[in-house]
Amino acid sequence: xxxxxxxxxxxxxxxxxxxxxxxxxxxxxxxxxxxxxxxxxxxxxxxxxxxxxxxxxxxxxxxxxxxxxxxxxxxxxxxxxxxxxxxxxxxxxxxxx
Length: 97
Hints:
Layout: H1 2-31, E1 43-48, E2 52-61, E3 65-70, E4 73-78, E5 83-84
């Protein structure tokens, strides 16, 4: 009985995880203009001397670099020097227990 209960619970947890991850990806897709993972998206975190990290809009991107407009001037960054912005982190969501 315990083994069957454990398998059913594990199945339920795995199913919930899949539903949650699908919903999360859809939310990120909707908030980021449909771009997930392979490209950085519309917004990225760039290194900044005074603020440590600053959120900026992507102007152009390639496999090696990302360009933003800073004071109407293009500025290039290596892809490894920037971080993708996850829009779900800016939402005030309820804690689910």
